[in-house]
TrEMBL record:
Residue ranges of every copy of the Dihydroprymidine dehydrogenase domain listed in the record: 5-111
Catalysed reactions, semicolon-separated: 5,6-dihydrothymine + NAD(+) = thymine + NADH + H(+); 5,6-dihydrouracil + NAD(+) = uracil + NADH + H(+)
Subunit comment: Heterotetramer of 2 PreA and 2 PreT subunits.
Organism: Clostridium tanneri
PANTHER family on file: DIHYDROPYRIMIDINE DEHYDROGENASE [NADP(+)]
Name recorded for this polypeptide: dihydrouracil dehydrogenase (NAD(+))
Amino acid sequence: MEKEKYLAETKKALTPLLAIEEAARCLLCHDAPCSKACPAGTDPAKFIRSLRFRNLKGAVETIRTNNPLGAICSRVCPYDKYCEGACSRCGIDNPIKIGELQRYLTDHEQAIGMKVNDKVELNKEKVAVIGSGPSGLTAAAGLALKGYKVTVFEEKDVLGGWLSYGIPPQRLPQNVVENEIDYIKELGVEFKTNCKVGKEISVDALRADGYKAFLVSCGIQKGKNVDVKGADLEGVVNGVDFLAEAKTKKGEVKVGSHVIVIGGGDVAMDCASTAKLLGAEDVKIVYRRTIEKMPASTEEREYIQQHLNIPVFTGFKPAEIVGQGGKVTALKAEGMFDASTMELAADMVIFAVGQEAEDVKAIADLNAADVFAAGDIVEDDKTVVQAVASGKLAVEKIEAYLTGKSGLDEVASVKEVVK
Ligand SMILES: Cc1cc2nc3c(=O)[nH]c(=O)nc-3n(C[C@H](O)[C@H](O)[C@H](O)COP(=O)(O)OP(=O)(O)OC[C@H]3O[C@@H](n4cnc5c(N)ncnc54)[C@H](O)[C@@H]3O)c2cc1C
Ligand code: SF4
């Protein structure tokens, strides 16, 4: 039962009638601020206009020609930050539900088996993409559509990066990820899993094998640990490891009965909801700053607090994890703004306090003219849509490099921001 709750998508899809009614609320703004606000260049004003005139095919084409991960983005984008936040209707009542309309259209596309992008003849250079997260997938699709022979190298056995290992199924069902990856495979992109570049194979070996350009889209993978007494006790886990295990094992994981999540970002919210949906009796979140400073999206936090009844203790940081017989039994926390302390019983403590990059230089020399970078390793705003935008930019840069249309200065601009 718990497993079903965890695997089922929480947000229900719009019905055809509701989708048409929502599209009818659109003001068809001439300047379309929604379209200007999408980092990946989606044009909501255009697809909503098509939907209003019952032109579903045209609406799907607008989405799909721009973004190979349109169905994924429709589910995980923080719209309030982008298109919906810019929507002119914000000043009247509520923004148009752009994300839900995009989901309605991409669900329709999938249901009728519509294919907008056809495979083209792959007669150009070989390009290696290192990492199959959203930036790598977007770049691979874009390059294949231009005729390049692309191989994506992925160190894990499942493709998709955080789409498959991080974002839980109640927000992003795995079949949605698989459908979009299948679509990219149909464009002729090849995938090699369980192959870590820099370990199993080197960029030099790939060069010798005829690859002419490399995109490092390896993301930021390692969950940060917190240096606190008791962090090595049984029952203390890292948030991204916990989410990865739950998602890849389709919910067949053991969770504690009394779970404490430490952190205030989206990963912390995902850990809390996952633990609760998988049957934890009670889940609590402990966060060091104020609720206003929490980086998690307001929608996610409200869902956690109001629908899953998970309390958030703000202004506290962990002081010690208490254990007995090597197993965690409680968390001691101390106030950030005063001298208060508290002790909460727990048999599982999950740290969700951010991720850090592994050594990117071990993968490739980013100063080499044929090496490019995209995704979380170069973007300040670490979201899927930003990774898509970054993958699209990488396509332009790689094509410019391979066709000799740009100088090295321009090419370097993609790389120089790598931390
Ligand atoms: C739990 C969680 C929830 C999130 N929720 C959201 C959300 O709701 N909305 C949103 O917009 N964003 C969300 N994000 C952020 C988003 O998932 C990332 O910004 C995005 O996935 C980054 O994409 P990327 O292309 O950089 O690659 P990543 O997704 O980081 O994937 C990189 C891939 O490269 C592989 N790799 C690494 N090194 C090598 C190597 N040497 N050789 C071969 N392969 C390698 C990795 O195994 C991985 O599969 C979330 C992230 C997490 C962790
Ligand atoms: S800004 Fe809002 S109302 Fe204006 S075109 Fe875009 S979705 Fe429609």
